[in-house]
TrEMBL record:
Protein's UniProt name: Damage-inducible protein YebG
Gene3D superfamilies: PSPTO_1197 like
One Pfam family matching this protein: YebG
Highest taxon of source: Bacteria
InterPro entries (alphabetical): Uncharacterised_YebG, YebG-like_sf
Disordered, as annotated region: 66-96
Ranges of Basic and acidic residues composition bias in the record: 77-96
Amino acid sequence: MAVTIQYLVVRNGIEKMSFTNKKEADAYDRLLDLAEHIEQLLAEAPVNLAEQEREALALYLAQHQDQLAGPRKKPVKDKEKEDKEKEDKGDIKAVA
């Protein structure tokens, strides 16, 4: 007989999903938190959506949060790496 550990994500007493990995369960729980927050914002929006539509839209937006941010700039590299790259390209000459 095998023993397996399961992590349950429960909302309002309802089991939403089960995972065998705690990290995945935590990520899904955060996703549901975000969807709940978005749903509250949509409830205050100047459009009329049925509760079911609002929940579905909120979950969809939470699942696609990376796409909502649009194109992002490259992360700023630290100064030492940037100087090293310029030196390697010949933009900066090493002073002895």
